[in-house]
Amino acid sequence: MSDQNKNYIKKINLNYEDGESIAEFIYYERQAAIHDLINENSFSINEDDIEGPYVIDIKISDNVLIVNITNDNQLYSEDYRVPINSLKKTVKIYHSACNLYFDSIKKGSIDKIEEIEKNRRNIHNEGADQLIKITESHFTMDHNTSRRMFTLLYSLYI
Questions:
Q1: Structural domain includes residue 61
Q2: What count of other Cβ atoms lies within 10 Å of the Cβ of residue 108?
Q3: Which of 12, 96, 119, 125 is 20 to 30 A away from residue 70, measured at CA?
Q4: Does a structural domain hold residue 96?
């Protein structure tokens, strides 16, 4: 990230239940999203004079996305609570698409993988667009950042 652009996520932490058991592909998706997000993102808080880079802690509790944001100089720390009920259906559909995709890969069903992946990508984009919409009063993020954040939300929600 450029030193001139301070509106980015420097570090992201996921808070989930100890001993949480998740499918291998969800674990992989989570790790890839964190890696990609830290390497390339555009994120800012919609408040005057609050610059990053940001350290973000994310958790889900009772269908509410709780995002704690601290800026690099630690002069700012705030919890944002975003209801995510509107994402529930998209997350479930995305989970089904992911299961189908990874099952097809395991079984060697190559003939339909391209179509399944296209469908999965479209659902992922829809989830990212919905996430931008429900967080726009608090944050501004580009589409790729939102896609990665949706993946993290998905990995915590499922």
A1: yes
A2: 8
A3: 125
A4: yes
